TrEMBL record:
Cross-referenced SUPFAM superfamilies: C-terminal effector domain of the bipartite response regulators, P-loop containing nucleoside triphosphate hydrolases
Residue ranges constituting the HTH luxR-type domain according to the UniProt record: 806-871
Pfam families recorded: GerE, WHD_MalT
Molecular function GO terms recorded: DNA binding
BP GO terms, sorted: regulation of DNA-templated transcription
Classification via InterPro entries: P-loop_NTPase, Sig_transdc_resp-reg_C-effctor, TPR-like_helical_dom_sf, Tscrpt_reg_LuxR_C, WH-like_DNA-bd_sf, WHD_MalT
Key words, A-Z: DNA-binding, Transcription, Transcription regulation
SMART domains to which the protein is assigned, alphabetical: HTH_LUXR (SM00421)
Xref: PANTHER family: DNA-BINDING TRANSCRIPTIONAL ACTIVATOR DEVR_DOSR, HTH LUXR-TYPE DOMAIN-CONTAINING PROTEIN
Protein name: Transcriptional regulator
Length: 873
């Protein structure tokens, strides 16, 4: 075949020949097997597209594949320049490349008007796969070359395989091949160098970086091959490579020079200006582009960025530039129009603020060095909770770090922001100073700014881990009053505000001993906290609600809440180092109630760590109370006494609970007088817990009559009795009834205790009474049979019942009582028995009560089973 007529002279022939051979791979090329393998698989289909910005390594990747002998057929290569996409030039180059690949190209194919069809015939006649590589293809949609190439690819199937490298998608029907599964795409993400691939690239320049700097360099360049190569060149012989990497960005002079030459110099002035002004924001759409550069910029924005390989399309019409490209553009903008940079950032900040995009708005206000405006945006939009860690926003906090001190001393909002950032970072001293200054400045604000500023100040105070009770009450009351003045819907997007206020109100109610009100407040706070992603706020609400439910003896609910709290991090990153002592105390109380004493000790130790960092009188008192109760269960009353006596401070209700624990300790130590003195000292009329503790003291003194009287009065109280206290009282009543040879009452009381304990998973009262319950359970299988699950949890063993125990009858049954038993065994009702025996219904009921007492049962069915076992019926 001859060189085409349009390229017939010797010099042009040499140029053509250089364009239709696979380029030589530079010696410094890093062969990346994963991309070669992807291209190998792609060559099995009709079309492979390799796209990316200048310097992404497109050509290098395809050359690596082409020279790796991994192709299913010969490769026809064409290297294109922008001027080569005219039909009269393009088709002769394609024909020449196919000829060099061994295709018998006909003379008719030299007519560029007929070339697509003729070349399709020539390729099909070859009868084997051939790969056509078009490197650096740039053609417009619906151009003559585009239409012809589409026709060639369709007509020469399945033998022609096309591989295209370009800066943007080629003007080919990609969607058609994608749907048919015949398209392989190698995009900028595939071309990006991974860390393991960047290592040999740097090593070619004698550069070796530690893992952290290497990771930072790859992240900063986003794996852009040219960026990595330029960095490697600059790093050769550098005395401080780690320091260089930390500073390396798009404003590096070598990067700027490369991008100016490859991208900007080829652009007309209006497009160049568009790229410069739209580099100011981190992401941009056509509306923002119009805001920054004017209406014309907005109109042409989409077309320009779609033609820019350094622009990545995001969702909903947003684009972002490659970070190094954006940095280079910003540097050029600072040199060419230094006065525009601040104004462009402020325009961007205002636009983002109008759109409700707070983080972007704040970032641009800070870049414009307008810290006051950035702070007003945060405070005015009730976003201080995002700084405090209630709804963590690390990016927003980072954007506001480094605020100059002089700014915080001149306006209220910057001072509030500085205080919130300090609180989130665990610097409570700096927070207090900034808050004090800001509070003074709030008085000078106009009303429209004063209300959100005072609300922000109140929220910062509420996150103080260690205010006294009076300060907390004042802060909560102030914030509650401020919230009433805000429009109801203004807090719809800020559930963390209501969660914080309600949780703070709950802490006040808990401190006053109003557990029902505290539970309501914490429950409402949790509802709002769950609408946020604030782990500390959710754990705070869950922990306090769980602990409050423990105090209300609602251990089923407390167990579920404590388990949910345990699923969240123990130490929350925001606010810094904050632990939730209440969560550990709730877990300890639940573990104690379930008699998991090692776990209870473990949670108490973790609670003490939290309280050492942030002391709290109520939580410290609760820690002492639970610790003392664990000591008592483990049979360590003296240690329990030391724990109680070593606790100072705390509300009156908690001191009272601690004194009752002290009374129990004295009882276990065999000091009933001291136990009675302690219980009577803090006892209140009608208080069931005081009554139970005092009854135990009287039992310890051997005065069963007084103990029984106290228990009977406690159980007769009309008010609600906490479930665990009621179980304790029923157990004491059962114990005393069995002691007074009234087994029927004892059995009834024990059955009630078992039923309530089984329902509410209350194990601790039974463990306290293990000594006398264990033998009783062995002797009465009918009683414990419905509660085997509870006994398994208690690790009680009902065992095999001895015959002597089964045969026990507490009193001889009369003849009439035996008659009633016989009728009972026939499933007769009370009325039927009365009619059969010619007695009144009340007489039958009296006989039944006597039968139950003598057989130590509480139900008809149990009486019949017992009677049959004893051969009475």
């Amino acid at each position: 075949m001859m060189v085409p007529r349009t390229l017939s002279d010797r010099r042009d022939a040499m140029v053509v020949n250089s364009k239709v051979v696979v380029p030589e791979q530079p010696p410094w090329t890093v062969c990346r097997t994963r991309i070669v393998e992807r291209l190998r698989r792609g060559a099995g289909g009709s079309l492979t597209v390799v796209t990316g910005p200048p310097g992404a390594g497109k050509t290098s990747a395809v050359v690596s594949w082409a020279t790796a002998d991994r192709s299913p057929g010969p490769i026809a290569w064409v290297t294109l320049d922008p001027e080569d996409v005219q039909p009269e030039t393009f088709w002769p180059l394609v024909a020449m490349a196919l000829y060099h690949a061994g295709i018998n190209v006909s003379w008719e194919a030299m007519d560029w008007g007929r070339a697509p069809g003729e070349l399709a015939l020539d390729v099909s006649a070859h009868g084997r796969p051939v790969i056509l590589v078009l490197d650096n293809l740039h053609m417009s949609h619906n151009s003559e070359v585009s239409r012809g190439l589409t026709s060639l690819l369709e007509s020469a199937r399945p033998w022609l395989r096309l591989v295209v490298t370009a800066r943007r998608d080629p003007a080919l029907p990609l969607h058609r091949y994608r749907l048919a599964g015949q398209l392989t795409e190698v995009r900028v993400g595939h071309l990006a160098f991974a860390e393991r691939e960047a290592e040999p690239l740097l090593a070619q320049h004698g550069v070796r970086l530690a893992p952290a700097p290497l990771r930072a360099l790859v992240r900063r360049t986003e794996g852009w091959a040219a960026g990595l190569r330029l960095a490697a060149i600059s790093l050769e012989g550098h005395p401080d490579p780690d320091g260089f990497v930390a500073q390396f960005a798009g404003d590096d002079k070598s990067v700027v020079a490369y991008l100016i030459e490859e991208v900007l110099d080829a652009r007309p002035d209006d497009q160049r200006r568009l790229l410069l002004v739209t580099s100011v924001p981190d992401r941009v759409n056509s509306e923002l582009a119009a805001e920054l550069g004017g209406v014309d910029v907005g109109r042409s924005f989409a077309e320009v960025v779609q033609d820019n390989p350094f622009a990545t399309q995001l969702d909903h019409g947003w684009y972002r530039y490659h970070p190094m490209f954006a940095e280079a553009l910003r540097l050029i903008l600072r040199h060419e129009a230094p006065g525009d940079v601040a104004s462009l950032n402020l325009r961007a900040a205002a636009w983002f603020a109008r759109k409700g995009l707070l983080l972007d708005a704040v970032r641009h206000a800070v870049r414009a060095d307008d810290w006051a405006y950035a702070s007003r945006l945060v405070i005015g939009r009730t976003a201080v909770g995002r700084l405090l860690g209630l709804r963590p926003d690390r990016l927003l906090v980072d954007a506001l770090r480094g605020m100059p001190d002089h700014v915080t001393r001149t306006e209220a909002e910057p001072g509030l922001v500085a205080a919130a950032v300090a609180r989130a970072g665990g610097d409570d001293a700096s927070c207090a100073r900034a808050l004090r200054t800001a509070t003074e400045l709030i008085a000078r604000l106009p009303a429209a700014r004063a209300l959100p500023a005072r609300l922000a100040a109140g929220m910062i105070r509420l996150t103080d881990p260690g205010p006294d009770d009076a300060e907390r009450v004042r802060a909560v009351t102030e914030v509650e009053n401020l919230l009433r003045r805000l429009p109801a819907r203004s807090l719809d997007d800020h559930p963390e505000v209501r969660a914080l206020v309600l949780a703070s109100r709950g802490r006040i109610e808990l401190g006053e001993g109003r557990t029902a009100e505290a539970a309501d407040a914490f429950g409402s706070a949790l509802t709002f906290a769950l609408e946020t992603d604030g782990e500390f706020l959710r754990r705070h609400c869950l922990g306090h609600l769980a602990l409050t439910e423990c105090l209300r003896s609602r251990f089923v609910r407390a167990t579920e809440l404590a388990a949910r709290a345990e699923q969240l991090p123990e130490v929350c990153p925001a606010p810094a180092r904050r632990r939730v002592a209440a969560a550990h105390l709730a877990s300890a109380a639940v573990a104690l109630q379930h008699v998991e004493l090692p776990r209870a000790r473990h949670e108490l130790a973790r609670a003490r760590v939290a309280l050492e960092e942030f002391p709290d009188a109520v939580m410290s008192g609760m820690s002492a109370l639970i610790t003392a109760e664990v000591d008592l269960v483990e049979g360590l009353p003296r240690r329990a006494l030391e724990t109680v006596r070593g606790t100072v401070g705390g509300p009156a209700w908690l001191e009272r609970r601690l004194t009752l624990a002290e009374a129990d300790a004295h009882t276990l130590m065999g000091e009933p007088a001291a136990a009675r003195e302690a219980a009577e000292r803090v006892g209140e009329p009608g208080d069931p817990l005081s009554a139970v503790v005092l009854a135990r003291a009287w039992i310890g003194a051997g005065d069963m009559v007084t103990a029984a009287k106290i228990v009977h009065e406690a159980l007769a109280e009309p008010g609600a009795i906490p479930a665990d206290v009621r179980v304790d009282a029923w157990l004491l009543d059962a114990y005393l009834s069995y002691r007074f040879t009234d087994p029927s009452r004892g059995r009834r009381s024990l059955d009630r205790a078992l039923r309530l304990g089984d329902r509410d998973q209350l194990l601790l009262p039974f463990v306290r009474s293990r000594a006398w319950l264990q033998p009783l359970f062995r002797h009465d299988p009918d009683l414990v049979r419905p509660y085997l699950r509870l006994l398994e949890l208690l690790r009680f063993q009902p065992g095999t019942v001895p015959a002597s125990a089964e045969s026990a009858v507490y009193g001889q049954l009369s003849a009439r009582e035996l008659d009633v038993l016989r009728h009972l065994s026939k499933m007769m009702t009370t009325e039927e028995i009365a009619s059969q025996m010619y007695v009144s219904v009340n007489t039958v009921k009296t006989h039944l009560k006597s039968i139950y007492r003598k057989l130590a049962v509480t139900r008809r069915g149990e009486a019949v089973r017992r009677a049959k076992h004893l051969s009475l019926v």
